[in-house]
């Protein structure tokens, strides 16, 4: 979809320095859990754009993105200050690391990568599949949705920011042909996650990986 102005439905605090934005779905927009969009807005007379991955299980009517807010950043604080009925320009979706109706998803997430992780896990369960999430962060966010996923039957593991991952990954890997592993986070997390995946007996080359920068 070409850049299109859409409406903010809600801005919600989801944890330390993190918000979720609910956006009205433009008429021509369609996306899968795990894909990302480009948001553009004017800041002090300059048009700035950033990419954010969907954190909702679907896009019917509205969709959600999760934003890590750096108090000294140019865009995050501006997004956090938006209110319902404000508008923003959205384009996309982009990316190839997304849910494609796999019957088993295992998602490794660092920092704001928990956004797509919960969206994918929710969608997998809704479609009748199984899902597991290993999430590593010093200040976890989206506690309510992680708890709901755990209660719904997903396997949820939350680790401290510097905690080794191999054992946790080994515990959740199903090792079945229908399992799809997805990895979301910044570059240092991706290195740790793919190393842990290999050490746990998984295949990093089969994983769908999204680098947040």
Q: Summed up, what is this model?
A:
The chain has helices spanning 76-80, 114-126, 143-152, 166-172, 187-199, and strands spanning 4-15, 18-24, 36-43, 46-53, 62-68, 87-94, 104-110, 130-136, 155-159, 179-185, 208-211. It is α/β, with parallel strands linked by helices and 213 residues long.
Short key terms for the protein model shown above:
213 residues; 38% strand; alpha/beta; globular; six-stranded antiparallel β-sheet; five-stranded parallel β-sheet
Give your account of this protein's structure:
The chain has helices at residues 76-80, 114-126, 143-152, 166-172, 187-199; strands at residues 4-15, 18-24, 36-43, 46-53, 62-68, 87-94, 104-110, 130-136, 155-159, 179-185, 208-211. The protein is of the alpha/beta class and 213 residues long. The strands form two sheets. It has a six-stranded antiparallel β-sheet with strand order 4-3-6-1-2-5. A five-stranded parallel β-sheet has the order 9-8-7-10-11, with helices on both faces. The two termini are 23 Å apart.
List the helices and strands and how they pair.
Elements: E1 4-15, E2 18-24, E3 36-43, E4 46-53, E5 62-68, H1 76-80, E6 87-94, E7 104-110, H2 114-126, E8 130-136, H3 143-152, E9 155-159, H4 166-172, E10 179-185, H5 187-199, E11 208-211
Parallel strand pairs: 7-8, 7-10, 8-9, 10-11
Antiparallel strand pairs: 1-2, 1-6, 2-5, 3-4, 3-6
Helix pairs in contact: 2-3, 4-5
Strands, total number: 11
Q: For the residues shown, what is the average pLDDT?
A: 96
Distance between the termini: 23 Å
The ordered H/E elements are: EEEEEHEEHEHEHEHE
Characterize the overall form.
Answer: globular
- Helicity, as a percent range: 10-25%
Oligomer state of the chains in this structure: single chain
| Cross-sheet strand order for the largest sheet | 4-3-6-1-2-5
